[in-house]
Design brief:
This protein is α+β, with helices and mostly antiparallel strands. Helices cover 28% and strands 38% of the residues. It has 2 domains: 94 residues, Double Stranded RNA Binding Domain; 73 residues, Sigma 54 modulation/S30EA ribosomal protein, C-terminal domain (SHC Adaptor Protein). The chain contains 4 helices and 10 strands, in the order βαβββαβαββαβββ. The strands form 3 sheets. The protein has a 4-stranded mixed sheet with strand order 1-2-3-4, covered by helices on one side. A 4-stranded mixed sheet has the order 7-8-9-10. A hairpin with a 5-residue loop joins β9 and β10. The radius of gyration is 23 Å and the shape is elongated. The mean pLDDT is 83.
Length: 182
């Protein structure tokens, strides 16, 4: 975990740094992969101790802050808030998992050379990758698209088992492309 700490209107304290890093280790059980955390400590009017923490990892971004009369109590309160947010996020993901096929359909993604498409000589494939269209509901697809900051997502509809494409329109709304049988 990469932790950056900023002190505003107060002196840096190694004890506060160590305490915050120790408490931040608690959130690693909720998030996989590389985690970056930014911790802001500040004091206002010599009595308001404010701690704000921003955590980013694999499309998950969470932020919390708290104000108390004790910096250590503020750290504890902020970590508790972040833990509650991450638990809520994990429960949402679990609740949206469909029953049955967890693997989804395999899709092939090809990247073509632009000049070969314009010429009549035939198309040249630069790279081919295989991805999985995971089964999920429309609501989970919207949530995944927002969490991962994607403009579109290809997924298997958990109810119909059909491949769907959800995309973000230029006007900010969400579009859904779904197949219909004739």
């Amino acid at each position: 975990m990469q932790v950056a700490m900023t002190f505003r209107h107060m002196e840096q304290s190694d004890a506060l740094k160590a305490y915050a890093e120790e408490k931040l280790e608690r959130v690693t059980k909720y998030i996989d992969g590389p985690i970056t955390a930014q911790v802001y400590f500040s004091v206002e009017k010599k009595i308001r101790h404010i701690v704000e923490i921003v955590i980013n990892s694999k499309g998950i971004s969470t932020k919390a802050s708290d104000t108390t009369h004790d910096m250590y109590a503020a750290i504890d309160a902020v970590i508790d808030k972040i833990e509650r947010q991450l638990v809520r996020y994990k429960e949402k993901i679990k609740a949206h998992k469909p029953n049955g096929d967890e693997h989804g359909r395999q899709l092939s993604k090809k990247i073509f050379e632009a000049e070969s498409l314009e010429a009549s000589t035939g198309s040249v494939v630069i790279r081919t990758t295989t991805e999985t269209a995971k089964p999920m509901s429309v609501e989970e697809a919207v949530m995944q698209m927002d969490l991962l900051h994607k403009d579109f997502i290809v997924f298997t509809d958990a109810d119909s088992s059909e491949i769907n494409v959800m995309y973000r329109r230029k006007d900010g709304n969400i579009g859904l492309i779904e197949p219909h049988r004739a």
